[in-house]
Design goal:
The protein has about 150 residues and is an alpha+beta fold. It has one domain. The protein is built from four helices and six strands. Strands 4-3-2-1-5-6 form a six-stranded antiparallel sheet. Helix 2 crosses helix 4.
C-alpha cells in the first residue's frame, strides 16, 4: 500500500473514487463474506468519461471467486442505467467515497479493479453510508458528485 499523504500538493493530485457495495444478505449488512458486488467508479476530466470496475461473487462457487467486469460511459445517465441493471433495486448498498492520493502517478493500464480494491483503506475514506437503498436520487447524487471532482 502506498504511503499516506500529509503534503497539500498530493491532495491536489488525488482522485475521488466512488465505491458501491451490494450485499448478498441485507440483514447482515457490511460484514465479511456478505459483499455480492463491489463497484469502483471514477471520472476522468481529460476525456470526459466515467470508468467502472466491478466484481460480482460467483454464487455457483462456494469460495471467494469473483467475476470481473468493466464499463465506461460519458454521461451520468449511461452509468446509472448500467448500475440499475447490475444492482438489485430491492437490496441495500454501501456507498463510500475514497480519495486515492497516488492515482495520478499511475498509467491508465495500471488502473484496475485490483488497484482500487487493494488500496481501500479508511485513511482514504472521505464519507461512507451503509444500508442505503439504490434509488434514482441516491445514485444520481453520488455520480454527479464524482463527476465534479
Amino acid at each position: 500500500m502506498s504511503s499516506y499523504y500529509t503534503d497539500s500538493d498530493l491532495q491536489h493530485q488525488s482522485k475521488m473514487v466512488l465505491c458501491i457495495e451490494e450485499y448478498m444478505d441485507p440483514s447482515r449488512g457490511r460484514t465479511k463474506g456478505n459483499i455480492d458486488n463491489r463497484i469502483f467508479i471514477h471520472y476522468e476530466q481529460d476525456d470526459h468519461m466515467f470508468y467502472m470496475y466491478g466484481r460480482r461473487q460467483d454464487k455457483k462457487v462456494k469460495d471467494e471467486t469473483f467475476v470481473p467486469y468493466f464499463f465506461s460511459g460519458k454521461t451520468v445517465k449511461s452509468i446509472y442505467k448500467f448500475l440499475r441493471y447490475v444492482i438489485d433495486p430491492k437490496t441495500e448498498i454501501s456507498i463510500t467515497l475514497y480519495n486515492y492520493n497516488d492515482y495520478i502517478d499511475k498509467d491508465f493500464d495500471e488502473i484496475s479493479y485490483e488497484y482500487f480494491n487493494d488500496n481501500m483503506d479508511y485513511h482514504y475514506e472521505i464519507v461512507g453510508y451503509d444500508n442505503e437503498r439504490s434509488t434514482h436520487h441516491v445514485l444520481h447524487k453520488v455520480l454527479n458528485l464524482v463527476k465534479t471532482f
